Amino acid sequence: MTVVDLEKDVPQDAPRPAPQDASATGPATDAVAVAELPDVPRRIGGFTRSGVLSLLGAAASGLCVTVLLFGELAPFSGALGFFITAYLSFLGIYAVLTGLEEDAQAVRDRVMTVVLWTAGGLMFCALAMVVGFTAWRGREALPHGNFFTQDMQAAGPLDPLSHGGIAHAMLGTLIMIAIALTITVPLGLACAVYLNQIPGRFSRFVRTIVEAMTALPSIVAGLMVYAVWILGLGMQKSGLAAGFAISVMMLPIVIRAADVVLRLVPGNLTEASEALGAPRWRTVWHVVLPTARSGLATAVILGTARGIGETSPVLLTAGFTAALNADPTSGPMVSLPLAVFNFVKSPEPTMIARGFGSAAVLMALVLILFAIARVIGGRGPGHQSKRQARRAARASRRDTDRFGQLHTPGLDLFEPTAPANPGETSAPLGDAENPGESSAPLGGAGLHQSAAPPRSATSHDAPAPENGEPAPEPAPTDGEQPLSSTGDEH
Description:
Elements: H1 27-35, H2 49-73, H3 79-99, H4 104-137, H5 146-149, H6 167-197, H7 201-214, H8 218-232, H9 239-263, H10 267-275, H11 280-291, H12 293-308, H13 312-317, H14 336-344, H15 349-377, H16 386-407, E1 440-441, E2 448-449
Antiparallel strand pairs: 1-2
Helix pairs in contact: 2-3, 3-4, 4-15, 6-9, 6-12, 6-14, 7-9, 8-9, 9-12, 10-11, 12-15, 14-15
């Protein structure tokens, strides 16, 4: 017996016809009614009127509940406890008000959105307070021009702000960070590429060492360079030694951040490059690194921000000086963090103002380096500027023209060309099939005629044979003898 499934070819999402009896009710009728309702997507972003009213009402209610708890109902006190209680009351009341109109998933989404916005706002407020407080305390020293052009060799703690400056510390910081970047960027990116492209036991061991060095105290790096470079090799304290110590601190940060960025490069890009025959180094240089360029710039910035603020390695390896020293190989050199430390620990108000002014200059220097790295790194993959889009379009047009020229059919060197005069014939180079045979000269006028093609060769214009029939002979042209039909045939 054969069983035929009548609904096998019917799609699963096809609408079912309604029952003929309109008075009949049951589960099938309810299912059809539910299926006919349109799907309306839930709005998960933006502001709505009810959402704003719920937010404001929950904030007011949470504040009132906290005031009652701290003032009338419970013996609570303290500003920190007041704000924590008010915030928790606000979240609870906001969840209840949102649950009156939305489902449980929407309530969780709204509450977590408020928590994340709160965390972001706190972080922004903390950053604004640090930057604003530093700039406000250094407002007395920043307006003076000598603060950026002079050193502290001829100025003392009791001198006014119109004497002395931090030029020696600014130059020392730039020299040290330049030395550290020169060492860190090539080594860090090369190590990250190795960890990403060559997996194995040794790469896992290197990754473990890098992660352990991330938590290395800065004083340990300074002591290591001091013991090897100064005590072991007998070198003097200098900016070069401080650059070595800073590079030791920056290297694990750059390697780890660059390794994470290189892991995000899509694998199909590298597979496509290797499928086209490119070697591994060319794939890395032309595909992997350009794709991750923006993230690699961020990795370098993270390492720079870690190294530019170090104080103890610079104190151990470069010493301290109040004079300007532009030679990183000899003599002590000072950096901005070390200058801030020495200025702020003084009890004089002018020295404290110089310290906060130096801290503001240090933050501005980090911001400038970050902007330069952003420009060099460019935008992420798929986010091109107008200039980059035009450059990519020009490169695509050049590639298209080049591919078109490579695939354009050229003239056949062995194909006879049309004679200049109707009474003359062309002189080809020879037979393409039999290179050893040459054209035979004709008598009379000294004209040449090409050797007869093989009997088995057919003309490109002749129709293909059908049903096993021989192909028709091509029509003879001027100056050529027709092939004999009695000749040998394959």
